[in-house]
Structure prediction request, 111 residues.
Amino acid sequence: MTEIEYEELAQRLGTVVVIDVRTEQEFHGKAGYPCDPRQGHIPGSRHLPVDAILEAGDVGELVGEPESTELVVYCHSGSRSAMAAAALRAAGYEARNYPGSWHEWSRVDER
Prediction:
């Protein structure tokens, strides 16, 4: 399974490693898309830009998690995170893309 939907992710927060691959400004809520009702990041997520993942020589060193750890990757609308999830899977990780990403999360969850 390479994708995860909102309901499952919301229920599993704290049991999976959530990685935000957007820019630092987007992650911290200082920039974003005007179509989103609020800015910020999914609670408990780690910031790891997509470029860093795609350009890393050793993804394991960058991610810092064992390959057996389930990773969930998101961005604004699922495109950057799809590339990052594919790169993480190629490096041996169980990585799932959250296609709704921040665009969906910012609308349905006030956590």
